[in-house]
């Protein structure tokens, strides 16, 4: 039986045998090279050279991916830093507010502690009052406090702060009261010099930083630096509480009276809290309650609180 062959097929079988032989030879060569390289490391230099030659192509191929990863990482880090910065700023603001609040509370506690330590021994009871409003008229030194008749406050009641006599109540409402300051021109208070017991009257000038002692004779024993205390005459203010300190003494030979100024001991121009004082004046004083002149009383009328023979 004859076998039919297509044209050109007479080379197919020999070519297939040749390719198979080449593959076997190349495989054996490769195995031999691997064995030799593994044992003798003869191809290490060649491998390193091929790796060095291929490195730029590897970098070039990986560059787009690396660039994209760098961009996304950079923007993500920047956004995270911005968010963290905003959060830290908000936390710092809250911390600053808390710190300011704590400092304000600490200062208030110190003020209240000083005020409680400064309560006169003669006081039966004291009550803290906060200043609600200040009269800005230079000729009318008044403040409004947040305690009134519902708390037992009465007219002509003495008012002090942590450092001295502040004033006295002139008008009272159910929930608030008006306090006339020592510096009001309508106010006068009997005082005495702590150094020698000399008694006189301290009168308001309309200046919260200055009082006047207009009834001292030219030869009166008073000098700058002398401390003025409340004398207790008239039964309005407790005796022995700081009122002012003498700052100026002028003796004009042409005038019978000395010119004496004093700085109030109380913080008349900046106090935020004051103490309302209840106390029982000594019965031995027996003076009418008109010594510390209430609103509308002239300084001259306050001299009635000084017994005969005393200055002025």
Set down the secondary structure blueprint:
Elements: H1 12-40, H2 44-117, E1 123-134, E2 142-145, E3 158-160, E4 165-172, E5 177-181, E6 188-193, E7 199-204, E8 211-212, E9 227-230, E10 242-250, E11 259-264, E12 273-279
Describe this structure as you would to a colleague.
The protein has 312 residues and is an alpha+beta fold. The chain has 2 domains: 21-117; 124-306, Rod shape-determining protein MreC, domain 1 (Thrombin, subunit H). It has 2 helices and 12 strands. The strands form 2 sheets. The protein has a 6-stranded antiparallel barrel with strand order 1-2-5-4-3-12. The termini are far apart.
Average pLDDT metric: 78
Strand neighbour order, sheet with most strands: 1-2-5-4-3-12
By CATH's scheme, which homologous superfamily of the largest domain applies? Answer: Rod shape-determining protein MreC, domain 1
CATH class of the largest domain: Mainly Beta
What is the gyration radius calculated from CA atoms?
50 Å
Structural class: alpha+beta
Main sheet properties: 6 strands, antiparallel, barrel
> What is the general shape?
rod-shaped
State the end-to-end distance: 166 Å
Element pattern in H and E: HHEEEEEEEEEEEE
As for the number of domains, it is 2
DSSP helix fraction: 25-40%
The CATH topology of the largest domain corresponds to Thrombin, subunit H
């Amino acid at each position: 039986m004859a076998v039919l062959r297509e044209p050109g097929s007479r080379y197919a079988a020999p070519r297939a045998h040749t390719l198979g032989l080449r593959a076997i030879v190349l495989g054996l060569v490769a195995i031999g090279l691997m064995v030799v390289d593994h044992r003798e490391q003869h191809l290490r230099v060649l491998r390193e050279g091929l790796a060095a030659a291929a490195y730029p192509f590897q970098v070039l191929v990986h560059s787009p991916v690396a660039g994209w990863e760098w961009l996304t990482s950079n923007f993500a880090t920047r956004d995270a830093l911005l968010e963290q910065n905003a959060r830290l700023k908000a936390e710092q603001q809250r911390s600053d507010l808390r710190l300011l609040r704590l400092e304000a509370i600490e200062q208030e506690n110190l003020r209240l502690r000083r005020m409680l330590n400064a309560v006169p021994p003669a006081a039966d009871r004291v009550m803290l009052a906060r200043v609600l409003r200040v009269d800005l008229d230079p000729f009318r030194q008044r403040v409004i406090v947040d305690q009134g008749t519902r708390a037992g406050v009465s007219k002509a009641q003495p008012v002090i702060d942590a450092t001295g006599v502040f004033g006295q109540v002139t008008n009272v409402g159910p929930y608030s009261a008006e306090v006339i300051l020592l510096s009001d021109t309508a106010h006068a208070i009997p005082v005495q010099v702590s150094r020698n017991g000399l008694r006189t009257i301290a009168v308001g000038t309309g200046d919260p930083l200055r009082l006047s002692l207009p009834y001292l004779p030219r030869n009166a024993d008073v000098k700058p630096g002398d401390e003025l205390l409340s004398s207790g005459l008239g039964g309005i203010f407790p005796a022995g509480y700081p009122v002012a300190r003498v700052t100026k003494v002028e003796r004009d030979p042409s005038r019978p009276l000395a010119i004496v100024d004093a700085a109030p001991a109380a913080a008349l121009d900046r106090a935020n809290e004051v103490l309302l004082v209840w106390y029982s004046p000594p019965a031995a004083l027996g003076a009418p309650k008109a010594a510390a002149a209430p609103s509308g009383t002239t300084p001259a009328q306050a001299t009635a609180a000084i017994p005969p023979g005393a200055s002025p």
